[in-house]
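Minutes, project huddle
Topic: does the predicted pose make sense with MF3 bound?
PN asked that the exact inputs be recorded in the minutes so nobody has to dig through chat later. Recorded below.
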Amino acid sequence: MTIQKKSKDEIEQMRQAGRIVYQVLEHLRSLVKPGVSTGMLGRAADEKISELGGKALFRGVPNPYAGYPFPAAICASIDDEVVHGIPSDSRILNEGQIISIDCGVRYGRYCGDATITVAVGEISDSVRRLMTVTQEVLDIAIQMIRPGVRWSQIAAKMQAHVELNGYSVVKDFVGHGIGVEMHEDPKIPNFVSRELLRNDILLEAGMVLAVEPMVNMGSSAVRYGKDGWVVCTTDHQPSVHCEHTIAVTEDGSDVLTDGR
Ligand code: MF3
Ligand code: CO
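Predicted holo structure (tokens), as shared on screen:
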């Protein structure tokens, strides 16, 4: 495993990619309402990315399990869909649903990757609470990231916040380093495992991480859906996903996908 650390100049270039991701996601957030299809959101993402001079990163990503590459610029995952939902014109948003929109963009040499989960109209208090806790889990990571901290210390706090609220962390998918490639070393889990403790990550300035907690209201168990891409909760209870691209700085963290 080799962790590619980035210079301050590279981090500024990554912020430009991250800013495009932010602008795309905020545009899509404004479009989410009952009656809109995820296919339409996918097209709106492509338009916005090219208008801003970026390149969609997800289209063409291979998946041996599905047997075909990801066909769109965003993942659009509704309710019990955890990640990797394929946008479709036949998938119409309904009042009370939640949709996670994941977007990755290359701008120049560097990548940015972020996810927001958005309510469609009015949602139940219980699902609103799941959204709030998931955002808090990402905020815990942002607050704790600094040189000298081991990732397991952060993952432990993230997992504890989920579980103390009665929810579960998805274990089958994790965050990742990011830079010239969308997926670089190291893997960034949202939970503590023997594997992580055996091979912990000591944070250093210049590391850039895509941190992406996936929190289930019910069981942590997930399985692939029919199209071979979408991942759903096995109990069909809702799941929320939030993600930011975050640089480790000399004295803390710097979120590169928050629009600054
Ligand atoms: N944020 C996800 C990830 O980092 C999105 C990848 S979707 C894919 O892995 F289509 F590119 F696979
Ligand atoms: Co990611």
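Observations noted during the meeting:
- The chain is about 30% helix and 25% strand.
- The longest strand covers residues 98-107.
No decisions taken; revisit at the next huddle.
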